[in-house]
Amino acid sequence: MAVIYLDNNATTRVDPRVVEAMLPFFTESFGNASSTHDYGAAIAPALKDARKQVQALLGAEFDHEVVFTSGGTESDTTAIFSALETAPGRNEIVTSSVEHPAVLNVCQNLERLGRARVHYIGVNASGDLDLDAFRAALSDKTALVSIMWANNETGKIFPVAELAALAKAVGALFHTDAVQAFGKLDMSLKDTGVDLLSLSGHKIHGPKGVGALYVRKGVKLSPLFRGGKQERGRRAGTENVPGIVGLGAAAALAHQTLAADSARVKALRDRLETGLLAAIPLSRINGGGDGRLPNTCNISFDYADGEAILHKLDQAGVAASSGSACASGSMEPSHVLRALNIPPFALQGAIRFSLSRETSESDIAKVLAVLPEIVADVRGKSPLWVEVRPSQVA
Questions:
Q1: Domains defined for the chain, CATH in brackets
Q2: Catalytic annotation on 297?
Q3: Which one from 326, 365, 368, 370 is the annotated catalytic residue?
Q4: Given 41, 77, 87, 336, which is the most exposed site by the fewest CB atoms within 10 A?
């Protein structure tokens, strides 16, 4: 059975053109870029090219603003620790209640250790940040504001330029986890106040295990990893050359077709949502409306077990998720949807579909064909659904 893959916010298939670009650096140009001999030095141009490719997709001004890492989690951790270490007299962090665990868990651990005070800013039912609470949390004690560019579960986009300006007004650094936004939205960092930005290769049809941290020129960075002088002394460790080349190639491909891909994927996402809402009673889009990533649909089916729906979708050859892959296996409802105050009877029935440039019309048609029956079957096994159905469903 051919699998219809709609879990691209978790990871994407590596583009064959990216694999092709990477292969020589496994078997032919395999030297260590830090070596002084010609064989190692020959690797330097490939790293420089990849840095420029990432820079172009970010709309960054200088190529040395891109520091290669092992992925989004390392980039997030580096940004948070560095901000605290380079801001004497400041020990507060402002973040949101809907951040990825890569940010939330670091902040919570810093609180437990007594190293920082953290303000968690809530969102409304649409997923919009409480700007009044955000402004009130800022002070001359704020070392860092860390707000994601776009949410990984709902796709909600946050006003990073406005938030960065408010952070700068109190002398704080501004970091954004842009792992989901990178390659899906048009970015121009030189026109924003963003100081630090995290990204990852495997969300844009690049390889896993490689990412980058954007560090605006002039911003001090305290390395998380100390050792060698790689990455201008900002990230020690032998460079993952094949991965970095793959990230650069994936960024270049995304840059070439960003506008067209976004428009096409959004049309498919909208068709999926419209069809499901029409075909399945008591369904709702979580964090819907405008201001979302073009590829993300988070939909709840009231009085249904989301895990049972996902299992039946998997049996039908459709891969989707209930939220962040980093939280898979947890029986707790999504912290993002709880922050949106999704009612309990809808919370457990939430499904995330995340599309990519590889998603086709036939993929969406298949989901629209099989999912109404799956939801009806799952609901039919729920005593709660039997109880509410006569009064709520025509």
A1: 4-9+258-392 (3.90.1150.10), 16-254 (3.40.640.10)
A2: no
A3: 326
A4: 41
